[in-house]
Amino acid sequence: MIHNVLTIAGSDSSGGAGIQADIKAISASGSYACSVITALTAQNTQGVTHIHPIPSDFVTHQLDAIFHDLTISAVKIGMLNDRHVIQAVADKLQEYQPQYIVIDPVMIATSGSKLLEDTAISALQTLLFPLATVITPNLMEAATLTQQPIPQTEDDIQALIHQLQQRFSQPILLKGGHSPNTTTSTDWLITTDRITSYSSPRIQTKNTHGTGCTLSAALASYLAQGDDLSMATQSAKRYLTQALQHADNLDVGHQSGPVDHFFQLRSYNHIKE
To answer: Which pTM value belongs to this model?
Structure first.
């Protein structure tokens, strides 16, 4: 059986991050992707120029349409632009009770563009975090959540990890893509009683747009298919690493392009030829 995975996020007009990346990652990792759009963005590989929020009542209508008809095995949550949308999403998740919820607290784009209003951060933590199976911040987002400086050294990262462990009861998958380590990319799965690291060689490519969206969407997909959190994390990390390894096969935009979500399909077509 193919499991249905819902992504709740913003749209990326360049196709590399947000809803578009989520749909690609969910599909490539073996699940069926459906979506609720929370915001429209005008963006490309060079950055975000405009954001058009979707009204919270229309977000609610989208959620009702999905849950009234589809059996949803897992939900991935990305960009939520304001506290009204956060409240709407929290209300519907409590109503429909999906088994797995992966929250990617999208606050700052890789380009540095701000994507979440300041007033929404506390609502995100209060209303949505308690519902999460796992929360997947990057280093910048984790620093914002803990009100700490962005880590600059490996020691800083370890201190941040312990801050997250003490502050949150929900599992945290801390994404280390922005760490100062130039040879290894490490993510950390943090629970109240354990810290597990997942490392892979750092891929030297400029095409890293949407990596956070891709990892969290794949994680939701593997959870939907029955993997436990540790196994799903390993599988999602492996998928993203391979998508990064093939990213330079793409020629998208002038700066940070996307990863190659469908590298497996291209490899299969190449073998057929």
So the answer is: 0.94
DSSP 214: H
The tens digit of pLDDT for each residue in 3-52 reads 999 999 999 999 999 999 999 999 999 999 999 999 999 999 988 888 89
Q: Which of 16, 45, 213, 233 is catalytic?
A: 213
pLDDT of residue 111: 54
The H or E element that residue 4 is part of is strand 4-12
Using only the alpha carbons of the chain, give its radius of gyration. Answer: 17
Q: What is the dihedral of CA 269, 74, 19, 167, to 10 degrees?
A: -120
Please say if 119 is a catalytic residue.
Answer: no
Q: Cβ distance 143 to 244 under 8 Å? A: no
Q: What is the pLDDT of residues 128-166, one digit of tens each?
A: 999 999 999 999 999 989 988 888 889 999 999 999 999
Q: Which of 78, 210, 233, 237 is catalytic?
A: 210
Question: Cα(first)–Cα(last) distance of the chain, in Å?
Answer: 30
pLDDT tens digit string along 190-202?
Answer: 999 999 999 888 8
DSSP state of 126: I
Catalytic residue among 24, 76, 175, 237: 175
Cα dist from 247 to 7, 12, 47, 210, whole Å: 23, 18, 19, 12
34 is catalytic: no
97 within 8 A of 72, measured Cβ to Cβ: no
Round to whole Å and give the CA distance between 90 and 106. 16
Among this protein's residues, is 92 annotated catalytic? no
Other beta carbons within 10 Å of 259: 32
Respond yes or no: is residue 213 known to be catalytic.
yes
- Entry field: residues in the chain: 273
